[in-house]
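Backbone-to-sequence.
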């Protein structure tokens, strides 16, 4: 059975949980959106988060957080022709300079996102190297505290320094190692 620790307001289970879903017609299932919602809830509750991005870049995550802070459609104009979303922010779309309420709302969303992300450590794959299980193990052991939650987005892209003959073998091995890491460090890991 997983170990439990009670705090003033909640109980956290020290396990490794996998978010899984079948692909829809458009190829998106919402696992990352759910993980981001969960991350933001934990940050609001005062937890520290280590978020490992294996598919997206940090700017994509930050844009999604800003969009989340302001609502699903960041700012809708009455004619609905000029909607600014996370994708729009990444593309450089900005509200009209004369639209002061929207300018203020965008600044407020950016400010609240910055404040929330102060307790979030974001790690991402680079062109030169991929994040490995062993890197996550070292970083978690070095910096994790009782209020840390680790997110790995997403598990199928996680590599290991260990060599495997098949992807199935690798994908059987990684969750077991992450479960051990969660139990050893008494932290939840969500992949």
């Amino acid at each position: 059975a997983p170990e439990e620790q009670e705090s003033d307001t909640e109980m956290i289970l020290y396990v490794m949980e996998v978010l899984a879903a079948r692909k829809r017609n458009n190829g998106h299932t919402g696992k990352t959106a759910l993980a981001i919602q969960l991350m933001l809830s934990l940050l609001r509750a005062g937890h520290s988060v280590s978020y490992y991005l294996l598919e997206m870049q940090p700017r994509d995550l930050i844009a999604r957080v800003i969009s989340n802070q302001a609502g699903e459609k960041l700012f809708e104009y009455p004619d609905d022709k000029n909607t600014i979303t996370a994708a729009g922010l990444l593309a450089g779309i900005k509200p009209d300079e004369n639209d002061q309420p929207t300018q203020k709302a965008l600044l407020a969303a950016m400010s609240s996102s910055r404040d929330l992300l102060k307790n979030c450590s974001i790690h991402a794959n680079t062109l030169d190297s991929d994040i490995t299980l062993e890197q996550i193990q070292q970083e978690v052991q070095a910096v994790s505290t009782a209020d840390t939650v680790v997110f790995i987005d997403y598990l199928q892209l996680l590599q290991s320094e260990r060599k495997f003959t098949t992807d199935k073998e690798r994908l059987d091995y990684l969750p077991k190692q992450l479960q051990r890491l969660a139990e050893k460090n008494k932290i939840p890991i969500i992949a």
